[in-house]
Amino acid sequence: MEESITRVTKKNVVVRDWSLRTQKAKGDSLKEGYTFDLPERVTLNVRQNDLEDLIGIWKQWDSDTRGIFTEKYGDIAHLVAINVSEQLIQAMVRFWDPAYQCFTFNQEDMTPTIEEYVALLRIDNVQFNKIYVKEPKPMTFKKKLMKLTGMTDTWAEKQIKKKNEVSCVPWFSLRELVQNHPDTLRRIDLFALAIYGLVIFPKVLGYIEVVVVDFFEKLKQGINPVPTILAETLVPKCL
């Protein structure tokens, strides 16, 4: 882990220097006439999924199963145990500048970087130049669900629900499989899917959306998830 952080720190210096040179050479990226103005009022929704099930499952796994999971999916399991401070978010969101997509404190700007996310998630077994792109003709949601779970067509058909006009699968439908599926690797994959659906990309509470399943299918093929996670972190704050 220390070697990974050291490597990323060196890269951050290069990125910072490049950013400063580019900013000086090309000037501001905003359109002419834009007025810098942080919002006076911000509506903040801090509702989140109940992660007790995921925490309990992780604690029940033995060291070998945890090791296999970490080797495949990095340190994302640690995200389920992080306590989010509502007060901290309320304080920081007041300094969010939607134009620059960063936090502005007086004259200093702060925004998460790809390198920092790489260090945070410690995902070492991906192809960093292979970025997620949605397939033009993807497999149907039902087929993807069957492939991931190893369950029947009838089972998959019954689990798919519509929430806010979006196809989803409820977490409780997958929870039983994560806990009791006879195939250890499938349990590990479904646990990782749950983290991506409930923690990293939570859109409908208690459900995992079809777009998360699409992304997760590509993740298993070695794509680099960090740019997508970073984009999804930033974009909703700008709306």
Automatic annotation (TrEMBL):
Kindly give the PANTHER family that the UniProt entry links to this protein: AMINOTRANSFERASE-LIKE PLANT MOBILE DOMAIN-CONTAINING PROTEIN, PROTEIN, PUTATIVE-RELATED
Pfam families for the chain: DUF7745 (PF24924)
Domain (DUF7745): residue spans on this chain: 62-234
| Name by which UniProt lists this protein | DUF7745 domain-containing protein
Species of origin reads: Gossypium hirsutum
> Lineage, please?
Eukaryota, Viridiplantae, Streptophyta, Embryophyta, Tracheophyta
Q: Gene name? A: LOC121224285
